[in-house]
Amino acid sequence: MATLTKQGGGRNPVTNRLLRHFNFLSFTEMSDSSISRIFTTILGAFFKKSFGESIQSSCEHVVAATVDCYNAIRAALLPTPSKSHYTFNLRDLSKVVQGCMRCDPRSTSDVKQVLSLWLHECSRVFEDRLTTNEDHEWFRSQQTTLLAQHFQGLAYDEVVTTERLIYGDFMIPGADPKVYTHITDMGRLVK
């Protein structure tokens, strides 16, 4: 059993002499509408369970913006020998949606809080892999564009009101259940 991917990004072509020993099984990529439908159903069920109408209505926009971010980063930031880890797949898209599902209904009552969490999760999943300042700047401009495009012209500064956007569930030691919240006290975080 073996797996192959496309040539490029430091990967060498495989010879026909080796390939003759294998049976081929390949899958076509899912369409954006299929991906959106799957993740909108998952996130929508989570939001419907515990959140208000305004947050429930933002579900489709969050998923659409996530799919657009995923497609943009796959098209613009291709793997190279110096950036061989720039490979993005549906697992990354799933991690963003799962991260958005960690928000606490007791402390999340506004769409801007959900968008702040979404921006954090996109940064955690996608931007944390980026290595150059140009790539980080490109990603930030992409987030700003997606906010304006999918969320009625919201600006990045309207959603992110702190210097650094960090979420975590470790600020209250021994809490059960752990609460995934926006961390604003950097001194306490470092401590």
Automatic annotation (TrEMBL):
GO biological process, one term: microtubule-based movement
Endpoints of the signal sequence: none
SUPFAM superfamilies in the record: P-loop containing nucleoside triphosphate hydrolases
Species lineage: Eukaryota, Viridiplantae, Chlorophyta, core chlorophytes, Chlorophyceae
Organism: Haematococcus lacustris
Protein's name in the database: Dynein 2 heavy chain 1 cytoplasmic ATPase lid domain-containing protein
Any one Gene Ontology cellular component term annotated for this protein: dynein complex
Limits of the Dynein 2 heavy chain 1 cytoplasmic ATPase lid domain: 44-135
Record InterPro entries: DHC, DYNC2H1-like_lid, P-loop_NTPase
Domain of life: Eukaryota
A Pfam entry, by short name: DYN_lid
GO terms, molecular function: dynein intermediate chain binding; dynein light intermediate chain binding
